[in-house]
Amino acid sequence: MKFSLAALVVVLALAHGSQAAQSPEVEKLAQYFQDLSAQLTSTTQELVQKMQSETFVEDGKAQLQQIQAQLKPLAENMQAQLKPLVDNFQAQMEDLFRKVMDQTKSLGQ
């Protein structure tokens, strides 16, 4: 379709050159088709850019999902290793807090 429009614009431009003095309607028609061709080209370029942007975003999402899939086992492994350490630390802090509270009570008596 784009080729057909371009061919039509060329034909009209040739006709315009040979019959410009004879028909102002042909000139208006040629200008209309030139404007239509420019608009079609612009719209096509915008559509291609939009499709490329969407493809780029989709590729980014796919890469992010792959990274998440790779990091999930690592995170689960780290959590499994750290949980006992955190639990032990929490128990020690609770014990320390109880001792401080007991000493504070004995000082108050």
Largest beta-sheet characterization: none
Distance between the termini: 98 Å
Low-confidence stretches: none
Radius of gyration: 38 Å
Anisotropy-based shape: rod-shaped
How many helix segments?
Answer: 2
Total strands: 0
Strand content: under 5%
Oligomerization state of this entry? Answer: single chain
**What structural class results from the helix and strand content?**
mainly alpha
List keywords for this structure.
signal; 2 helices; 0% strand; mainly alpha; rod-shaped; 109 residues
Plain-language structure description:
The protein has 2 helices and no strands. It has 109 residues and is mostly helical. Helix 1 packs across helix 2 (24-108). The chain is rod-shaped, with a radius of gyration of 38 Å. The N and C termini lie far apart (98 Å). The model has no long low-confidence stretch (mean pLDDT 84).
